[in-house]
Write a structure and sequence with these properties.
152 residues, 2 strands, two-stranded antiparallel sheet, Arc Repressor Mutant, subunit A
């Protein structure tokens, strides 16, 4: 295993450029990855894909729960659910405890769409990483650990 010795720098609060540069790099990477989702025009849009991931991980959900999880308005969540249902990516089912409420669950087609999206993003990143040398890969490996810790 390659170990990387990176010279210690002052903490981020002493480097006024670190936070803005990191934010911009993460934002740009997220944008590029979102663009990788729908090269064919047949996959869900980024907002649809994000909602689909939430339904996959936390579902079945009511549209209100989906709106809260995605931090979107309830009418927007209702439109997202309608679009995902029309595409066959989710299904609506009655809530067992309250027949007036429906819950949204992911379908096999929705799982397949997410698998394609994830594969496309991973393939894109793998192509980009192949351009780096061993040192850069090791530094990125450490950066991932740090980012995961910050997000925990």
């Amino acid at each position: 295993m390659l170990t990387v010795s990176v010279a210690r720098r002052p903490p981020a609060h002493d480097d006024p450029e670190l936070a803005p540069r990191l934010r911009l790099a993460i934002t740009r990477m997220a944008r590029v990855l979102r663009q990788e989702i729908n090269r064919t025009g047949t996959e869900p849009s980024p907002i649809m894909a994000a909602a689909l991931v939430t339904v996959e991980q936390e579902g079945p959900l009511t549209p209100s729960e989906l709106a809260d999880a995605e931090r979107i308005q309830r009418p927007t969540a209702t439109r997202v659910v309608a679009t995902l249902a029309a595409a066959g990516f989710v299904t609506r089912c009655p809530d067992p405890s309250d027949g007036r409420v429906s819950r949204v669950a992911i379908t096999p087609a929705g799982r397949a769409a997410l698998k394609r999206i994830r594969s496309r993003k991973n393939e894109y990143l793998a192509r980009q990483l192949r351009q780096l040398d061993a040192y850069e890969l090791a530094v990125l490996s450490q950066a991932v650990k740090i980012l995961e810790r910050l997000l925990a």
